[in-house]
Amino acid sequence: MWETLHVIQGQHQPLLSASARLQMGPIARLNSLTTETPDFRAEFPNLFKGLGRHKDAYTIKTRPDIQPVSIYTPRKIAHPLMTKVKTEIDRMLSEGVISFVNEPTAWCSGIVVVPKPDQSSVRICVDLTALNKAVLREVHPLSSADDDLALLAGSRVFTKLDARSGFWQMPLDPQSRLLTTFLTPFGRFCMNRLPFGISSAPEVFQRRMSEILRDIEGVIRHMDDILEHAPTQSVHEDRVRIVLQRLQEAGLTLNEKCAFSKPSVRFLAHIIDGQGIHADPEKVEGIREFPAPSNITELQRFLGMVNQLAKFTPELATHTEPLRQLLKKDLFWFWGAPQEQAFLKIKTNLMSTPALAHYSPEKETIVAADASNAGLGAVLLQVQSDGSRRPVSYISRSLTAAEKIMLLLRRRLLLQHGLPRGSATTFLVGDIQSRQTTNPLSLSYRQKNYTSCHQGFNTSVSDSCGSSLRSSMSRESSK
Question: Which keywords has UniProt assigned to this entry (predicted)?
Answer without folding.
Answer: Multifunctional enzyme
